[in-house]
Design brief:
Layout lengths: L1 E4 H4 L9 E4 L1 H25 L19 H29 L4 H12 L4 H8 L3 H22 L30
Antiparallel strand pairs: 1-2
């Protein structure tokens, strides 16, 4: 009777060292099958996995070691991104302070909480169209503040959010009074 370690031959299934006594013939068969599998894998790798022959095979190999310069540049980039994010948040808080409380609450509900205009209108106590106009006017006011402070360039074209009033409805023109 031979003792074999199941982890050595059946690793994905058996992850811990498990020693089992088996008859000599079974142990020899397991060892022979393992060697045959290893030989087949080596043969397959030798004949099929050339870096020239298989496009994309180079992606399966680990990358080269990262240099200290790359690490420093990555940390510097992270610091710059964090500083830019902090500046952006400060500017947004400053701009939001210029809005009315109603506009601020509607913007918060729409963009931070993701509520639809109907829910915003119900919560604030006005109509859906009033909620839409309030949010649009708040965006226009923020945009004008950003342009005034020089944080944003004015838009070249008239965008939807630069309109100051809703579009006029198409009405039927009444003909002259009939006498």
């Amino acid at each position: 009777m031979k003792t074999i370690n199941l982890k050595k031959y059946y690793y994905p299934i058996c992850k811990k060292d498990t020693f089992v006594e088996v008859p000599d013939e079974v142990a020899d068969a397991i060892v022979e099958e393992s060697r045959a599998e290893d030989a087949n894998d080596a043969k397959q790798h030798y004949h099929c996995y050339s870096l020239d022959a298989s496009p994309g095979m180079e992606n399966h190999f680990p990358e080269q070691a990262v240099s200290p310069e790359d690490i420093l540049m990555e940390k510097e980039t992270e610091r710059e991104q964090e500083a830019a994010r902090t500046l952006m948040v400060e500017r947004l808080q400053e701009a939001l302070a210029t809005l009315t409380p109603r506009q601020t609450s509607c913007l918060h509900a729409r963009f931070w909480e993701g509520k639809p205009f109907k829910e915003i209108a119900e919560a604030e106590g006005f109509t859906t169209s009033a909620a839409i106009v309030t949010v649009r006017n708040a965006i226009i006011k923020l945009q004008k503040y950003y342009i005034k402070c020089g944080w944003m360039k004015p838009p070249k074209e008239k965008a939807i959010c630069t309109k100051t009033a809703p579009p006029k409805r198409n009405r039927k023109k009444t003909s002259a009074k009939k006498s």
